[in-house]
Automatic annotation (TrEMBL):
It comes from Zobellella taiwanensis. This is Dystroglycan-type cadherin-like domain-containing protein. It comes from the Bacteria. GO terms for molecular function: calcium ion binding. One of its GO terms (cellular component) is membrane. InterPro entries: Cadherin-like_sf, Ig-like_fold, VCBS_dom. Signal peptide: none annotated. Gene3D superfamilies: Immunoglobulins. Pfam families: He_PIG. The lineage of its organism: Bacteria, Pseudomonadati, Pseudomonadota, Gammaproteobacteria, Aeromonadales.
Length: 636
């Protein structure tokens, strides 16, 4: 019974011959089963025995002339004989009887034998449900299991089942593209977890399989990554027939959120000092970059002057404002998971002394040629102090001194915008020279301790000083430039000065002839709580034709008096933190077209000189003063 005999059709035919010596006798045939059916491998079911026995027949033969013959046939449809093992048999027989007309009989036995063949055993197995990477999968236990079904139709056979790895482990991205070979240790660990098997088991049944790995690091898997590997199961029966099935294991990756080092990284940094920080090493993600993981970063609440470059991952720049900033660093992975941390960045103004060093010993140069005529000194020694030809103390016009209508304090301790003055007057010699003084608004005052110049350009100066109460004062001084077209323009240095004090000039607008509005915006973090005040550059109160909105910082100039061509305006903003920020603007009203036609020239406001002119005057006065003093001394 080779092949699939689970629904076999059995067919057979033959011939029955009969005769009688009595010429005139007739013969009748009949057939009966002998009930001798035997299966060499065991007992048949009554249903199968009856089905097999019912297959034999001969045509009806009654009073047939002798000698004669007739055919026999055997036909059974859809009979299951798969249970017969190789060499097993089923035997059964029938007795055919011939009876003549005189009642004499003769019998003949017809025997049938069904011979079994070997059927290969079969396996049935369902792939395991996927194993999923745990949220914290660096030491994950992997456990799974299932059942293998097996059948050998040859019921008297035994079977043995075993397995072997197909060495086909693959790490793939979501979508199926291979990523890279796994480390050998991990590969061997994962493959080693499968187990099953049986020897000489009954022909049909079920066998359990298990998969168990106690600790595997799967954190590197990205969302949707898979690791697949398979085993071949083999079943062999006792007659050597075999078949195979494949069982596949799948491990599926999940997203791991990025993590960040929370070690303290607070910093204190000097304002004006270049700053650079690559913070990306603080962040990490267990998911492998090789399979597509990537972190993107963002930074918030940086002090002005610092920027974050997402292409390089570096914070850099030069901080322009002081204060304490809570900087937030945020990392986001490709699946949207994120982690953030803060650090405190304290920007402090450099604390340096601007004390003027002692001057070097003075060596008089030779007098300029043709500048003076040397004469004998017949006068008594000069009294201390400054004298005129008549012995008075009035200022000598044109003798190297600058009157109150130009630089205010002049040489005798005057500070000038951005300088400490040209000396201490006649009795003090050339003196301290240009330094880092208090600016035009503090003409005639000595340098302030712990004061530092942050920006120094031709038309812009920024100075920071520390007040006795611990707060700081930031002061920016700028010349307001008017283009040939009559527009107010600010260059890069002036805008740097605005940024340093967080006071920005949004616009200067002439609303009508003789009227000017200056819009000032506070761009500091405490802008909403700032209070604005203003004075002239000399510190004097504003005249009636200049007003300031203390909440909005809007300065209005309305019809300045005749002859008022320029002024220095000082706007001060005090924040809730006590920090004082000062913006000084040198305004040329004539250039801006808001002067009133002169009826009688008004006396210029004391102390006003444009920034460039102050510096030039200081230098020129220094040169003239030195030459004249030397000439005078040599003539004595």
């Amino acid at each position: 019974m080779a092949g699939d005999s689970s629904a076999q059709d059995l067919r057979g035919t033959g011939l029955v011959s009969f005769g009688d010596l009595d010429d005139n006798d007739t013969v009748s045939l009949s057939v009966v089963g002998n009930n001798d059916m035997v299966w060499s491998g065991g007992a048949l079911s009554p249903e199968l025995a009856a089905q097999l026995l019912g297959g034999f027949s001969i045509p009806a033969t009654v009073n047939a002339a002798a000698p004669g013959s007739t055919s026999w046939s055997y036909a059974v449809d859809n009979v299951d004989l798969d249970f017969l093992a190789a060499g097993e048999t089923i035997t059964f027989s029938y007795t055919v009887t011939a009876t003549d007309s005189q009642g004499a009989t003769a019998e003949q036995v017809v025997s049938f034998t069904l011979i079994g063949s070997n059927d290969a055993p079969t396996l049935s197995v369902v792939d395991a449900a996927p194993l999923v990477e745990a949220i914290d999968g660096d030491r994950q236990a992997l456990v799974s299991g299932g059942v293998i079904g097996y059948v050998d139709a040859d019921v008297n056979n035994t079977v043995s089942i075993g397995f072997e790895s197909n060495n086909d482990i693959v790490w793939s991205k979501q979508g199926g593209a291979p990523v890279a070979p796994l480390p050998e240790a991990l590969r061997n660990l994962l493959v080693s977890g499968f187990d099953t098997g049986v020897v000489d088991a009954a022909s049909s049944g079920q066998l359990a399989w298990t998969y168990r790995v106690p600790e595997a690091n799967l954190d590197f898997l990205n969302q949707g990554d898979t690791i697949t590997f398979s085993y071949t199961l083999t079943i062999v029966d006792s007659d050597g027939a075999a078949s195979t099935e494949v069982i596949t294991m799948t491990i599926v990756g999940t997203n791991d959120a990025p993590v960040v080092d929370v070690a303290n990284m607070d910093q204190k940094w000097l304002m004006g000092k270049p700053y650079q920080l690559d913070f990306s090493p603080l962040f990490s993600d267990a998911d492998a970059a090789i399979s597509g993981e990537k972190l993107t970063f963002s930074v918030s609440n940086l002090p002005r002057g610092l920027v974050y470059n997402p292409l390089t991952g570096v914070i850099s720049g030069t901080p322009l404002v002081s204060g304490v900033f809570k900087v937030t660093l945020l990392a986001t992975d490709m699946s949207g998971a994120r982690v953030a941390r803060d650090y405190q960045l304290e920007i402090v103004a450099p604390s340096v002394s601007n004390a003027v060093p002692a001057p070097a010993p003075f060596v008089p140069p030779a007098p300029p040629a043709n500048d003076v005529t040397v004469v004998g000194n017949t006068f008594t020694p000069l009294p201390s102090g400054l004298v005129t030809a008549t012995g008075g103390s009035a200022v000598i016009e044109g003798a190297g001194f600058i009157g109150t209508s130009s630089l205010g304090g002049g040489l005798g301790g005057g500070s000038g915008l951005g300088g400490a003055g040209i000396g201490g007057g006649l009795g003090g010699g050339v003196g301290s020279g240009l330094g880092g003084g208090a600016g035009a608004a503090e003409v005639g005052t000595p340098p302030v301790a712990n004061e530092v110049v942050l920006v120094a350009r031709d038309n812009a100066l920024v100075v920071q000083s520390e007040n006795p109460n611990g707060s700081t004062t930031l002061r920016a001084s700028v010349d307001v430039n008017v283009s040939a077209a009559g527009d107010v323009v600010f260059d890069g240095a002036q805008r740097d000065a605005f940024n340093a004090v967080s006071l920005n000039v949004l616009g200067i607008e002439r609303t009508s002839p003789g009227q000017l509005n200056i819009r000032i915006a506070d761009t500091s973090p405490a802008a909403s709580s700032a209070v604005y005040t203003a004075t002239l550059g000399s510190g004097e109160a504003l005249p009636s034709w200049i007003t300031i909105d203390p909440a909005q910082g809007l300065v209005s100039i309305d019809n300045p008096p005749a002859g008022q061509k320029a002024l220095v305006l000082r706007v001060q903003a005090v924040g809730a933190d006590g920090q004082v920020r000062v913006l000084e603007m040198t305004l040329d009203l004539e250039e801006m077209g808001v002067t009133t036609p002169e009826a009688e020239a008004a006396e210029p406001l004391a102390g006003f000189v444009p920034l460039r002119e102050q510096l030039a005057s200081e230098l020129a006065a220094n040169d003239q003063y030195g030459e004249r003093v030397l000439a005078f001394l040599q003539s004595s």
